[in-house]
Amino acid sequence: MRIDFDPEAMDRTPFYKLLTSVVVPRPIAWVSTMSADGTANLAPHSFYSVSCVSPPIVQFTSVGRKDSLRNVEETGEFVVNFAPERLFEEVNATATDFPHGVSEFEKVGIEQETSLRVKPPRVAASPVALECVLHGTLGLGDSTVVFGRVVHAVVDDAVMADGHPEIDRLKPLARLGKNEWGTTGEILDRARIRYADWEAGRGEGRG
Ligand SMILES: Cc1cc2nc3c(=O)[nH]c(=O)nc-3n(C[C@H](O)[C@H](O)[C@H](O)COP(=O)(O)O)c2cc1C
């Protein structure tokens, strides 16, 4: 038996809770921005993805109008800091609804690091930072999608193995449904199957 849910017939919040419980796990963009008057801001966003390969563009979504969005609109820049397991409490603390003009870096006690190409600072303890300039925004209902062109990436060599960021060293946090968070489980490593190999491999263990 399957249970049907019609978003048109439901209130916003229950459907939002359903959606965020089934679109899982979601990566977390720990977004740093700077207001026009120079206050640094930091907040997690799990509506986050890569939107384009060349040029490299990432996106995050502001549900409603929050300081991160306001700052990006004002200054045209942001940094996506990687959210690792070991910074779980800090990431969550920066989601507190501090008033505009209050810096989460200061309130939560997060060390800043100067970015190379943009004004918003990086999180010094985060292993990866993607420095972005605003490509554009897209208003969708109650939300705004922010697209940023990555103009610089920096990765801590402690998470690199053979010249590549390594998942076991990165240890990403993920957002699940409700107030749930996830960590990386077992890693499966399997190459994509080419059609020619699929045909040739018939009967060899794939049924
Ligand atoms: C793990 C996590 C993920 C979140 N993802 C989003 C998101 O994708 N979009 C959003 O608008 N708020 C998201 N939030 C809530 C914001 O982080 C929160 O509203 C924060 O106060 C916004 O800060 P700001 O006003 O400084 O931008 C998330 C919170 C947590 C804890």
UniProtKB/TrEMBL annotation:
Flavin reductase like domain mapped to chain residues: 21-165
Top-rank lineage group of the source organism: Bacteria
Pfam families: Flavin_Reduct
Entry keywords, A to Z: Flavoprotein, FMN
Cofactor dependence: FMN
Similarity comment: family membership: Belongs to the flavoredoxin family.
Name under which the protein is recorded: Flavin reductase family protein
Organism: Streptomyces coffeae
